[in-house]
């Protein structure tokens, strides 16, 4: 599938259940400089993000010297300001498992993600293992960068007034991925 196809298909599945999801517009607080460029409202996330950045072998000089730009996200439920991230196989690396301990417990079921990382990391760790990622030099740079950016979303989104729902989708069809997370999404939407 082409980039964005899975997210569009999840939005279509959600629409059949009366849940309107749109492409998440880019926001300044989620950017290529990560925790080195957080707004004041999110500065309390800096120590956790710095520790994860260090644990993932991040290079501060490289990260700070990246051309500034906002990072893409997947989907948004506008009324409730709920971000929906669809996590395909490449998100379930050993590096993501390392960062899961720091994520808020309400963004995703930690035990479920740990189990999925354990199951999928042998394959996910090999996915684009040689792809270079500025800020995360060396092998597995892109996987380490993705784990960091996922944690950045998990920690900072609530501080910026967003709720977060992650839809784990490795090895699932789009409909199966949506069905597996639909109850969490509906529960969040019901409390708004």
Oligomer: single chain
What's the tally of helices?
7
Order of helices and strands: HEHHEEHHHEH
Average per-residue pLDDT, rounded, comes to 89
CA-based gyration radius: 16 Å
Amino-to-carboxy terminus distance? 34 Å
Please state how the strands of the largest beta sheet are arranged side by side: 1-2-3-4
Q: Which structural class fits the helix and strand makeup?
A: alpha+beta
> Are there runs of 5+ residues with pLDDT below 50, and where?
none
SS strand fraction? 5-15%
The largest pleated sheet is described as:
4 strands, mixed
Count of DSSP strands: 4
Structural shape: globular
Which bin fits the share of residues in helices? 40-55%
Description of the structure:
- With 192 residues, this protein is of the alpha+beta class.
- The chain has one domain.
- Helices cover 45% and strands 9% of the residues.
- A four-stranded mixed beta sheet has the order 1-2-3-4, with helices on both faces.
- A hairpin with a 4-residue loop joins β2 and β3.
- α4 runs antiparallel to α5.
- The radius of gyration is 16 Å and the shape is globular.
- The N and C termini lie far apart (34 Å).
């Amino acid at each position: 599938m082409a980039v964005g196809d899975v997210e569009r298909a999840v939005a279509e599945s959600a629409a059949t259940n009366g849940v309107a999801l749109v492409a998440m517009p880019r926001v300044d607080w989620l950017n290529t400089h990560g925790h080195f460029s957080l707004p004041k409202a999110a500065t309390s996330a800096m120590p956790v993000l710095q520790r994860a950045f260090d644990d993932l072998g991040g290079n501060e000089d490289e990260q700070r010297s990246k051309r500034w730009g906002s990072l893409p996200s997947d989907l948004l439920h506008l009324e409730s300001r709920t971000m929906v991230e669809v996590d395909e196989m490449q998100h379930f690396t050993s590096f993501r498992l390392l960062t899961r301990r720091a994520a808020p417990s309400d963004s995703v079921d930690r035990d479920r993600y740990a189990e999925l990382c354990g199951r999928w990391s042998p394959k996910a760790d090999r996915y684009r293992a040689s792809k270079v990622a500025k800020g995360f030099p060396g092998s597995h740079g892109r996987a380490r960068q993705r784990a960091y950016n996922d944690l950045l979303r998990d920690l900072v989104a609530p501080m910026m007034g967003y709720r977060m729902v992650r839809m784990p989708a490795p090895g699932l069809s789009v409909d199966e991925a949506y069905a597996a997370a639909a109850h969490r999404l509906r529960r969040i939407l019901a409390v708004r």
